[in-house]
Amino acid sequence: MSLTKKRKVVNAKVDKNKAYSLKEASNLVKEINTTKFDSSVDLHIRLGVDPKKADQQVRGTVTLPHGTGKTKKVLVLCTPDKVAAAEAAGADFVGLDEFITKIEGGWTDVDVIIATPSVMPKIGKLGKVLGPRNLMPNPKTGTVTNDVAAAVNEVKGGKIAFKVDKTGIVHASIGRISFAPDKIAENSTELINAINKLKPSSAKGTYLKAVSMAPSMGPGIMLDTKALSN
């Protein structure tokens, strides 16, 4: 069966005119995956905000109860006195100047970068490389901290950062296709609740406009937003 035929079969399983419950979607998403590998399950959440306004830039972090299913590669940029703690917590890379040089040369083979406040002045110049990749350490997401061990443990334990893009959508991976449906649903609920709590007071009208769940290669399943709004 060619991928095109496969895709037609899967597309037919999703009713484009239906708003599914989270439980239904968490079961259905496993049926419509077309990859042989353990692909990610993603949520795409359209918010009723204007990201151009500073007070409506929704961003935050959330620890998914069942993790993401992906082991994240973590780089800790710190002074020598913090190296042992970062390594003991399981950081994949630890150091400072040598990594700043590597990043300036285009190296970004990590998922999260954690930095101590004292080294931030040195890292500022990396904004052009790290900013577009969402890798710049930021106090708001807990990635600028003196407690590097706790930050590494949180990231390794399923903590993810999310941020509304310029079109008003939050894209986030909340697990893998191999997860049981209830784990997909619980991780989704945790992310949606975190986003609901961050509704800007200046945002008017419907906040949670549309939510869809999809495997990394497969059609989106529209969710019933009324049931997801707090």
In brief:
This protein is α/β, with parallel strands linked by helices and 230 residues long. 33% of the residues lie in helices and 20% in strands. The protein starts with a helix and ends with a helix.
Radius of gyration: 19 Å
Shape: globular
What is the rounded distance between the termini? 43 Å
Series of H and E elements = HHEEEHEHEHHHEEHEEH
Give the strand line-up of the largest sheet.
7-1-8-9
Instruction: Tell me the domain tally.
Output: 2
Give the fraction of residues assigned to helices.
Answer: 25-40%
CATH homologous superfamily placement of the largest domain: Ribosomal protein L1/L10, rRNA-binding domain
CATH class of the largest domain reads: Alpha Beta
Which consecutive residue ranges, at least 5 long each, have pLDDT under 50? none
Helix count equals 9
- How would you state the average pLDDT, rounded? 92
Q: Please name the CATH architecture of the largest domain.
A: 2-Layer Sandwich
CATH-defined topology of the largest domain: Ribulose 1,5 Bisphosphate Carboxylase/Oxygenase
Q: How much strand content do the residues show?
A: 15-25%
Biggest β-sheet description: 4 strands, antiparallel
Care to count the β-strands? 9
Supply the helix-strand structural class.
alpha/beta
What does this structure look like?
The protein is of the alpha/beta class. It has two domains: 16-68 and 160-228, Ribosomal protein L1/L10, rRNA-binding domain (Ribulose 1,5 Bisphosphate Carboxylase/Oxygenase); 74-157, Rossmann fold. The protein has nine helices and nine strands. The model has no long low-confidence stretch (mean pLDDT 92).
